[in-house]
């Protein structure tokens, strides 16, 4: 098992990070260290590699390529794009999780959705599904590599939704995680029956009777990744994952 995350435990995420403590927050411990120790403490016969890097960092590549399946819990478009391409280049299934809470000014919600998407060759990719935006990837890259230019773009009004993300409630993130694990179980033991798998599953938490929607998604004509499928099983190449395309 491998854990990928550069983030630290602090007071802003303490309320929604399982196994974290006030001491962890005071010491600003890495999330991967706290969770890795918690897994070891359970006593499961498994070793845990703690990788304090973004999935797009070169230090994460070998571990990512060696995974049998990846649960993508990132909320940034850069990381989601790497995992999106990894699924096709290396045939590593990606189970991508997302939670969107968009409150309406007059009350209620325009969106209160938990999403699980299985990314693999033969299904629409994350770009074609509209879950990855190139302009947001540009802003995220600048924020990490050239903060001065990023700040210029933000002040000029070129950066959308630049405010810090609001914390989400742990009950909903936990339910989305359970949905993702169950999607993997379906593929391992078919507990829902032969037609029980879904490439994308969306749960509306604000509805009185919760039910999963199964958006079909559609590949955009000419998409190299999921329409023309020129990268299926391509594996190693320079640049990695042909990220300039």
Portion of residues in helices?
A: 25-40%
- Nearest-integer average pLDDT: 89
Strands, count:
7
Physical arrangement of strands within the biggest beta sheet: 3-4-5-6-7
User: Beta-strand level of the residues, as a percent range?
Assistant: 15-25%
Radius of gyration, in angstroms, nearest whole number: 19 Å
> Are there runs of 5+ residues with pLDDT below 50, and where?
162-166
Which structural class is indicated by helix and strand composition? alpha/beta
Q: What is the H/E string?
A: EHHEHEHEEHHHEE
Q: How would you sum up the major sheet? A: 5 strands, mixed
Q: What is the rounded distance between the termini? A: 31 Å
The DSSP helix count reads 7
Principal-axes shape call: globular
In short, what is this structure?
By secondary structure, the chain is of the alpha/beta class. The protein has helices spanning 22-27, 31-42, 61-65, 77-90, 134-145, 147-155, 170-189; strands at residues 2-4, 49-51, 70-72, 94-103, 109-119, 200-204, 212-213. A five-stranded mixed β-sheet has the order 3-4-5-6-7, with helices on both faces. It has a two-stranded parallel sheet with strand order 1-2.
